[in-house]
Design brief:
Length: 255
């Protein structure tokens, strides 16, 4: 299934039969953060109805309890930090984007420096400047190293997980990057006093908010996916909320 995509940045050929899924599903044993309880998916059971075929019902009819920011892969808008609702259902004008995958080994901070604290694991500005190509890409997919399968089940709460230097997020915004995808629960430090400096920098909020820019978090980039250029199909569930579960899918560019 070879498709030719007429993209604003050129013509690209991809094999639709070979998608590269970056998402981690929402389920009870999946990754979670922000001290949230595990996600729960359970049948509706009451005196009138049994929502489980296994338990004798006619259909499966399950309630799902989760938080889009805390469970599995999700995509968020500037509404995550804004007073007004900026809903994900209207935030993405199209779904295909030229993307670059980069692998970065976060730097361990040796001493307090500005907002960076000793011992923190941080994606630094100069690392992205060295890793990214000079081609104007619309989306950036960051795989942090070491890359382990444990990311698919990790309990991130109270771990001071890897985050992004705010200056790096600002640089990406200045380059015009529309979509930032990371394999951590946040681009900001887990405990930062509520400043969310990288979020603010990437969305240029509140000075001139980038209303159609998004951040996707808790992705997983398999080692079989090489660094380089791809077409990204950014699939996001249609929720009237600042964030929703998402399924970013890459397609390798054919020569």
């Amino acid at each position: 299934m070879i498709a030719t995509i007429q993209h604003p940045l050129g013509e690209f050929r991809i094999d639709l039969s070979k998608p590269l899924d970056l998402s981690i599903a929402v389920h009870g044993r999946g990754p979670r953060a922000w001290y949230a309880d595990p996600a729960s998916i359970r049948p509706v059971l009451n005196q009138y109805f049994t929502g489980s075929v296994k338990l004798g019902g006619k259909v499966n009819f399950f309630d799902v309890y989760f938080n889009p920011h805390a469970h599995g892969t999700h995509t968020e808008t500037v509404g995550h930090i804004a007073r007004e609702l900026v809903s994900i259902e209207h935030a993405i004008p199209r779904f295909w984007w030229l993307a670059q995958v980069v692998s970065v080994e976060p730097r361990i901070i040796e001493s307090d420096s500005g907002t960076l604290k000793k011992g923190d694991s941080v994606i630094m500005l100069e690392q992205l400047q060295q890793a990214m190509s000079h081609v104007h890409v619309e989306a950036l997919v960051i795989r942090t190293l070491p890359n382990t399968e444990g990311k698919k089940q990790k309990l991130y709460s109270n771990t001071n997980f890897t985050y992004m230097q705010p200056e790096a997020a600002q640089w990406l915004a200045e380059r015009g990057l529309q979509h930032l995808l990371v394999d951590t629960p946040s681009v900001d430090r887990e405990e930062d006093g509520g400043n969310l400096l990288a979020h603010h920098a990437f969305w240029n909020y509140p000075a001139a908010p980038r209303m159609q820019a998004t951040i996707s978090e808790m992705i997983f980039v398999d080692d079989a996916i090489a660094d380089g250029m791809y077409l990204l199909n950014l699939q996001v569930a249609s929720f009237r909320n600042d964030a929703a579960p998402s399924r970013p899918v890459l397609h390798a560019l054919l020569s």
